[in-house]
């Protein structure tokens, strides 16, 4: 029997609110030892209001970057992320909108460049998931929404950001452990995450001639708002119990992978995927 790792809880709205979680995820990067690795740069992070996106935004700010966070409608969470970024002495622009909308993606990039004069890093992180017990339960509407949010948006944002990223820019995509081991209740979500791996590898080869490095991170079971917003109370309470470390990871434990891939420490890497997943061995 899976062991309980968290209090029982559920949220009815995707992609979920960090403010409503118990306990709150650790995403403020309080013990992170910054070294100015992104000083003077600008990063755009989707899903930057909470969870992994928030931790990445704060880590980048600690490393000296100004940050643009893009979120759907979680205004309270976004305001807290902005507060944390500004507490590090960096600027933060928060933009609400649907990344499944290509026009919004173009406007988000334009606003970022207008506000900060440059764009150096794009983090394609936002995603949604809707568990179903059978492939027969996945409607056309759900399938199109999942793909539009999780992978089409990466094309839209990358296309908009590409001219500004040339000659030194970096792209970091969020895929998932489900791309490698599968997930019977998340068929469409896992499929988009597999597509993100292929997107990362293919784009990395195409973008090198323009001086852009493209990598990805494949988190395992991390404690983010998407979990209580996706699963019932029982499954949420057992989140992370199946991995070797027997617990869910915290966003603070994932964000350093995004720092590494965004800074010069990873200057000889492109087309690669990092796996902060609680000890599960994944080949790929």
UniProtKB/TrEMBL annotation:
- Any GO MF annotation of the entry: oxidoreductase activity, acting on CH-OH group of donors
Q: Which key words tag this protein in UniProt?
A: Oxidoreductase
- Residue ranges annotated as coiled coil are none
SUPFAM superfamilies the record matches: NAD(P)-binding Rossmann-fold domains
* Residues covered by region (Disordered): 1-30
Question: Pfam families recorded for this chain?
Answer: adh_short_C2 (PF13561)
> What domain of life does the native source organism fall in?
Bacteria
Give TM segment ranges.
none
| Family (UniProt) | Belongs to the short-chain dehydrogenases/reductases (SDR) family.
Annotated protein name in UniProt? SDR family oxidoreductase
Q: Please give the organism.
A: Chitiniphilus eburneus
- Provide the taxonomic classification: Bacteria, Pseudomonadati, Pseudomonadota, Betaproteobacteria, Neisseriales
């Amino acid at each position: 029997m899976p062991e309980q790792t968290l209090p029982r809880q559920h949220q009815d709205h995707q992609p979920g609110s960090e403010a409503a979680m118990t306990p709150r995820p650790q995403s403020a990067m309080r013990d992170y030892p910054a070294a100015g690795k992104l000083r003077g740069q600008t990063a755009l992070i989707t899903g930057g209001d909470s969870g992994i996106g928030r931790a990445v935004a704060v880590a980048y700010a600690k490393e000296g970057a100004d940050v643009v966070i893009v979120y759907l409608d979680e205004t309270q969470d976004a305001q807290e992320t902005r507060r944390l970024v500004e507490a590090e002495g960096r600027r933060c622009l928060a933009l609400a909108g649907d990344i499944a909308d290509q026009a919004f993606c173009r406007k988000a990039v334009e606003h970022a460049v207008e506000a900060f004069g440059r764009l150096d890093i794009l983090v394609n992180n936002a995603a949604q998931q809707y568990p179903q017990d059978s492939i027969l339960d996945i409607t056309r509407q759900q399938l199109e929404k999942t793909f539009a949010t999780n992978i089409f948006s990466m094309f839209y944002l990358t296309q908009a950001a590409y001219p500004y990223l040339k000659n030194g820019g970096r792209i970091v995509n969020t895929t998932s452990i489900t791309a490698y081991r599968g997930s019977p209740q998340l068929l469409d979500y896992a499929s988009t995450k597999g597509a993100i791996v292929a997107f990362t590898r293919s784009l990395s080869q195409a973008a090198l001639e323009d001086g852009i490095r493209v990598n990805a991170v494949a988190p395992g079971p991390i404690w983010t708002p998407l979990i209580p917003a996706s699963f019932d109370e029982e499954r949420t309470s057992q989140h992370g119990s199946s991995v070797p470390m027997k617990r869910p990871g915290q966003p603070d434990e994932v964000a350093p992978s995004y720092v590494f891939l965004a800074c010069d420490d990873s200057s000889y890497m492109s087309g690669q995927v990092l796996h902060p997943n609680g000890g599960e061995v994944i080949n790929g």
